[in-house]
# Entry
Amino acid sequence: MVNSLLYSHLYRWYEANRRILPWRETEDPYCIWLSEVILQQTRVVQGMEYYLRFVSRWRTVEELAAADEAEVLREWQGLGYYSRARNLHKAAQTVVANGWTPFPRTWDDIRALPGIGDYTAGAIASFAYNLPYPAMDGNVYRVVARLLDIDEPFDTTAGKKLFHREIEQLLDRSNPRLFNSAIMEFGALCCTPVLGDNCLTCPLSDVCLAHANGTAELLPVRKPRPKLKDRWLDYHIYVQRTKDNGQWTINTLLRRRENPKDIWYHLYEFPCEELPDDPTAEGGLTAKRSYSASGLTAKQSNSEAVCEFVHVLSHRRLHARFFVHRVKQLPTLPGTFPVAWAELDVYALSRLTLRALDSVSP
Ligand code: SF4
# Structure
């Protein structure tokens, strides 16, 4: 392919079609980094709200480094993949500790920060400093697979190397910022997963091998996905009403997840017990089933099954059931602590817990 032809078609399309996104209108590496981390696995509309909140609350990497991890997790609540928020905070502290403020300037230093892979390092290096590194996100893998008609899976080690070699050949070294912005936007808006009639009006159709060979809809190829592992979880929402000086207060129990390998590490949730197998074989969503897990007997608790969800993560399918137990006294359960219901929003709660709260009226 003649690169100059690709650049002229691509850049003309980009000038006419690009979205105005705040992180594409700045060369501030801190803002670009925040946007790239927030936008991983997140739609632009949802990511925009979080991005604007983060940059207004923590205006510099120093301010973010000085925040409590709990505050960062609380601000991240609802975005999922909380390890990204923990790494964001750790990376800010690394930048400050190493004296790299306002932000590292070389690809190697950027790549060495927690939570930053090749893609994010390339995006920051090119968008902030116009350094000649590619930024291969899912959109770019798709465009490259189709332009060059590559039917190797792009998500294997060998596939990544192959695609990386190809994008190095395509990269516009005279303006990597423009090239990366344009090809990413082109993948997001024109060379989309489901193509419809897009190829008919595509400005790159003349240089696209998959279009010429009729294979565009089949690309890119992924490696087979691993089977999801099922887990069954019973959550117990204790509700205690107390009256003090004529005022009613509602209390409950929370616990913090303490396993550093856990995706919800340091997030808060209701007490939970993992069941060894599928409890629905025993009659589905029943409060009775949960008494043993709650530490209560039927007489002690006025219990009710309130909701159940299947929550899918990258490698796990969680079958979660939530039970409300109305009690006179909160039980003593290891690792839990009492919280006023009105203060639940002070804690960073897992998305699953937030979903359940929509169904619970204490
Ligand atoms: S012709 Fe179709 S497959 Fe090829 S780059 Fe354009 S939109 Fe993508």
Summary: Residues 138 and 187 are 8 Å apart (CA to CA). The pocket of iron/sulfur cluster is lined by residues 146-147, 190-191, 195, 198-199, 202, 204-205, 208, 210-211, 216 (CB under 6 Å). The mean pLDDT is 91.
